[in-house]
Structures are given as structure tokens and as C-alpha cells.
Amino acid sequence: DISPLLKDPVAFRTLIDLLEDHLRASFPKIDFIAGLDSRGFLIGPPLAQRLGIGFVPVRKRGKLPGPTESISYSLEYGKAELEIQSDAVEPGQKVVIVDDLLATGGTMCAACELLKRLKAEILECLVVIELKSLKGSERLGSIPFYSLLQYD
């Protein structure tokens, strides 16, 4: 739960500082931050703004205007669908995918698939919290993954 971070402006600024430092040290060029619905929308835009790049939302089905790419995927409690605008990124653009939490990895894997369909280069999947015992990062395969905090 990142709610305490959101309530505390110093803690939230520190979180964005840490994520910014990590990305600047890891990647010389990033074109976009892609944030996952919905808490990735809270972390992604301030991070993108700090880096001087754009933000791309990956949303639940039916929320984005215009033509979209969509994917259906399984969750531990059912099925869900994600969408991205078809023109959100150009082929070869470098993208970091951001969310607050990685549990089983279903949503993150679905977002990776959508960005691959648009022929983006996924530099990394970045989260604040990783629940290691659920092994979600293993589902990402060869896509680089970074979590600020890990819990078993």
C-alpha cells in the first residue's frame, strides 16, 4: 500500500528522487514512461516530468479515446483487459513501464505485450514494491526488472 507515501510530500518526493536516480544511472535515453492503471498514474507522470519525457497511460478497457490495442489476461481472481492507444509510441522508442506493485506479474506482462505489439523497446519494468514470494518477476522473462522494496 503506497497510500502513506502519497500522504507525505517529503516521502513521495524521496520516492520519485530514488526512482529518477535509478533510471538516470541505468539508461542514457528514455522516450516515455508508461504507467499502469491506476497507481502507475500516480508515480509515472511526476517521474516522466523529472526526466523531461512524456507519459503514456496503459488503461483498463474502454477508458482511452481513439484506436487502441487491447489484451485480455488472467488475474489470480479472474480476467481483465488492458489497452494502450495505437499511436502511443513509435516503433523503436524506448519505454520504462511503471507501477506501484508487482505481485503475480499478470498486469505487467500484459502491458509488456501491448508495448511489444507497438514495437517499442522496453528498457525496464519498474515498481515500488515487489512481493517476491509470488514470483511475478519470473514471468517477465528477459525484460529487465527493478523494484525499490521487496517483501517475501
From TrEMBL:
Function: Catalyzes a salvage reaction resulting in the formation of AMP, that is energically less costly than de novo synthesis.
CDD domains recorded: PRTases_typeI (cd06223)
Pfam families: Pribosyltran (PF00156)
InterPro entries per the UniProt record, alphabetical: Ade_phspho_trans, PRTase-like, PRTase_dom, UPRTase/APRTase
Keyword Transmembrane helix: no
Main location: cytoplasm
PANTHER family, per the entry: ADENINE PHOSPHORIBOSYLTRANSFERASE
Family: Belongs to the purine/pyrimidine phosphoribosyltransferase family.
Protein name, per record: Adenine phosphoribosyltransferase
Subunit structure: Homodimer.
GO cellular component, one term: cytoplasm
The Phosphoribosyltransferase domain, residue ranges: 8-130
Pathway: Purine metabolism; AMP biosynthesis via salvage pathway; AMP from adenine: step 1/1
E.C. designation(s): 2.4.2.7
